[in-house]
Amino acid sequence: MEADFHRIKRLPPYVFDAVNRAKAKARAAGEDIIDFGMGNPDMPTPQHIVDKMIEAVADPRTHRYSTSRGIPGLRKAMAAYYERRFGVELDPEREIIATLGSKEGLANLAQAITAPGDTILVPNPSYPIHPYGFIIAGASIRHLPTGPSHDFMTMLERATRHSVPAPTALVLNYPSNPTAEVVDLDFYGTVVDFCRSRNIWILSDMAYGEIYFDGNPPPSILQIPGAREIAVEFTSMSKTYAMPGWRVGFAAGNARLVQALARIKSYLDYGAFTPIQVAATAALNGPQDCVEEMRTIYGHRRDVLVKSMADAGWTIPSPAATMFAWVPIPPAFAHLGSLEFSQLLLAEAKVAVAPGVGFGEYGDTHVRIALVENEHRIRQAARNVRRFLSKADPDAGAAALRMKA
User: Fold this and answer.
1) CB 241, CB 290: distance < 8 Å
2) Mean pLDDT, consecutive 10-residue segments, the chain of 405 residues?
3) Which listed residue, of 46, 182, 192, 266, carries a Cα 20 to 30 Å from 313's Cα?
């Protein structure tokens, strides 16, 4: 009776827990922690969206069960978004479904389309639900190393050729969490052609599609001719409209995949609270200047982070999109790995970051910094990092942390 349950045994300990526990302990001791760890937007949800939710919740008719597929007006609003943003026409009845955030949608679609032992192709590093949603469903994961030293198509072709059984699905995530990498339509076109010829489904996570900088909006995989034969794309209200706690997202694209997700969800939920769906509809159909304002704030934070950390002695590549920077560990600390470095940075500089190994073994040379502190706090973090880098003894500091643990 003491043995772990089968699915639980397939899930490793959550890497971020170690940093989160240390962060909570430091705060309990009264320490001021500058927290770049979790991608939790700190900006308020725009007022017109909040007002619409309040208006809707005052109507007792909205207090009843909703629908797991999303109310019709919300699905129509998402179809309108795709048409004006990407020039893609979608059928809101067959090709769009509302989800309780993109994370829930990805996990439930994995349950819908996966049989035990199926092979799924997932980039590494990647957001944890991308591999573990399928692992929970009983699949085997074939990791595709990503980054500047790896050619994606070479990795994809090799993994497909050597996987037994043949892969049934590929996960994509651009703009990427955690790496902030972006791709163009040519990339999507090549991947779609490859996967169509091999009957591989594509699950594209585009949760950060509206957080981009330097005037370069990321494309959608659904813009590629033929993509809807094999692809579904997940988007989210969380980052675009600063609505993370509202839990509203979407899956759009291939009608068969959307229907499979709808079938699973019909057994699991009745959809988000109707007033939340009404407010999400107002967000999509209403003025979009709030999105541009948040994009500008994230862009300013990115620039302050890159410059102030460079002045402190830590080089940070400037991300083209997302609310994250994917940052190589300083050379003097590289041998520690991302978890030990993150713990040391927290203890000595009072700065919390996400260890890259939490996103996969190929992320262990990096940490992820979320742009969720204001510019004043970013500069304060840089001052702390400057002092830390100037006096820290990497091995002594890490040894002291191990002694305390």
Assistant:
1) yes
2) 73 76 87 92 96 97 94 98 98 97 93 94 96 94 90 96 95 97 97 97 97 94 97 96 95 98 94 96 97 97 98 97 97 94 95 95 96 97 96 64 55
3) 182
CB 397 within 8 A of CB 344: yes
Last residue of a domain, one of 285, 302, 329: 285
Dihedral Cα 249, 371, 130, 263, nearest 10 deg = -10
Distance CA 261, CA 250 (A): 11
Q: What is the C-alpha separation between 191 and 103, in angstroms, rounded?
A: 23
Place of tokens 């620039």: 303
Query: How many helices (H) does the chain have, and how many strands (E)?
Result: 15, 12
* Pick from 256, 203, 248: nearest CA to 99: 248
Q: Answer yes or no: do 90 and 20 share one domain.
A: no
> Does 221 share its domain with 345?
no
What residues form DSSP beta bridges with 170? Answer: 121, 202
Residue 293 to residue 149: CA distance in whole angstroms? 35
- What tokens were used for 227? 């993509």
Handedness of CA 260, 266, 269, 272 (dihedral sign): positive
